[in-house]
């Protein structure tokens, strides 16, 4: 998927740090040559007069429209009344054919995080397009993504995440690390292969190492069409989500791109996932990619054309040649 239309929801109470994160969204749009959809969801359980809502929302969005004019990013504004802010954001994303939802988010911890949730978290549960959660703590703004970490496990969501991450990295001239976490022997046997109960720890370790090699090799092949600096690593530890976040810090990554299974309804609301656990505690920003996405970018003809254009533009820059119109 080419990221050409980015949706940024704007709230009434954006604090200074959130405003810095939103400004980084304008920088991202510049780098991707994308336009921005600046959206305000008026939270209401009873429809108000459109003129009243438009007046209030216009005052809120106007400074961001002016910023777009200053930095050369095309913007449009959208206003929607909704009793559910998260669903309102997803509705605008669908109606306006957005490619990416970009949201600042606070990383709350403990029971407060589990019980209260957040608008951003609910958006990731229902969105059919990638959602980039910009962590407000622990990152410097304006932010440039230079090192993208992609956790891989051989699943379909993992495959789609690799495609999205490498396409994004290609456009941003960032490098990519494919990361596979090997669980401890007991967790592996319990979760994946109970027939190995009587197998020695050394044999189980060898099996896991072999599977890790296969998974990373398959991930490399998926990423091969993209002209990005790429490496693959694996690490063994207990707790996949914890290990991913720990490795991201060790690798000095600044963005995690991870696939989700795209479950819906009650099943999605009740079941936690590695992706959500990573997003809850990540030391950096996270982009969640739903397995429900089937983007036309992955057709060889489209992908090949895009890769050639990016490579050609980089060569022109190296040689200080004018860009062909």
Q: What is this entry, summarized?
A:
The chain has 325 residues and is α/β, with parallel strands linked by helices. The chain has 12 helices and 10 strands.
Explain what this protein looks like in three dimensions.
The structure is a single chain. By secondary structure, the protein is of the alpha/beta class. Helices cover 49% and strands 20% of the residues. The chain has two domains: 1-143, Rossmann fold (3-Layer(aba) Sandwich); 145-294, Rossmann fold. The protein has twelve helices and ten strands. Strands 3-2-1-4-5-10-9-6-7-8 form a ten-stranded mixed β-sheet, sandwiched between helices. Helix 9 packs across helix 11 (274-281).
Helix content: 40-55%
DSSP strand count = 10
Average pLDDT metric: 79
Specify the overall morphology: globular
Strand content: 15-25%
Biggest sheet: strands side by side, in what order?
3-2-1-4-5-10-9-6-7-8
Q: Please, what is the oligomeric state?
A: single chain
Radius of gyration, in angstroms, nearest whole number: 21 Å
What is the CATH topology classification name of the largest domain?
Rossmann fold
Number of helices: 12
Q: How far apart are the first and last residues' alpha carbons, in Å?
A: 23 Å
Number of domains: 2
- Biggest sheet character: 10 strands, mixed
Please state the structural category.
Answer: alpha/beta
């Amino acid at each position: 998927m080419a990221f050409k239309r980015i949706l940024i929801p704007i709230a009434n109470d954006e604090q200074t740090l959130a405003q810095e994160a939103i400004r980084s969204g304008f920088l991202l749009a510049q780098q991707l040559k994308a336009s921005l959809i600046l959206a305000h969801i008026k939270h209401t359980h009873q429809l108000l007069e459109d003129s009243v809502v438009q007046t209030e929302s216009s005052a809120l969005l106007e400074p961001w429209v002016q910023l777009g004019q200053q930095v050369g990013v095309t913007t449009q504004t959208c206003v929607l009344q909704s009793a559910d802010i998260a669903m309102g954001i997803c509705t605008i994303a669908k109606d306006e054919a957005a490619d990416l939802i970009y949201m600042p988010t606070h990383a709350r911890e403990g029971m407060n995080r589990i019980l209260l949730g957040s608008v951003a978290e609910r958006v990731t549960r229902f969105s059919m397009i990638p959602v980039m959660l910009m962590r407000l703590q622990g990152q410097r703004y304006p932010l440039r993504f230079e090192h993208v970490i992609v956790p891989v496990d051989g699943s379909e969501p993992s495959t789609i995440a690799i495609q999205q991450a490498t396409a994004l990295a290609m456009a941003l001239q960032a490098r990519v690390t494919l990361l596979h976490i090997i669980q401890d022997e007991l967790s592996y046997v319990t979760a994946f292969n109970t027939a190995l109960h009587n197998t020695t720890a050394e044999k189980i370790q060898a099996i896991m190492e072999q599977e890790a090699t296969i998974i990373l090799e398959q991930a490399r092949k998926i990423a091969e069409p993209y002209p990005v600096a790429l490496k693959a690593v694996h690490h063994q530890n207990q707790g996949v989500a914890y290990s991913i976040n720990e490795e991201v810090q060790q690798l000095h990554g600044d963005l995690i791109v991870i696939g989700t299974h795209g479950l819906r309804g009650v099943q999605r609301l009740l079941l936690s996932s590695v992706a959500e656990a990573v997003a809850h505690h990540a030391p950096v920003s996270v982009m969640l990619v739903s397995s429900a996405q089937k983007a036309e970018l992955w057709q060889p003809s489209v992908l090949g054309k895009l890769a050639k254009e990016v490579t050609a533009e980089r060569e022109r820059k190296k040689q200080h040649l004018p860009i062909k119109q």
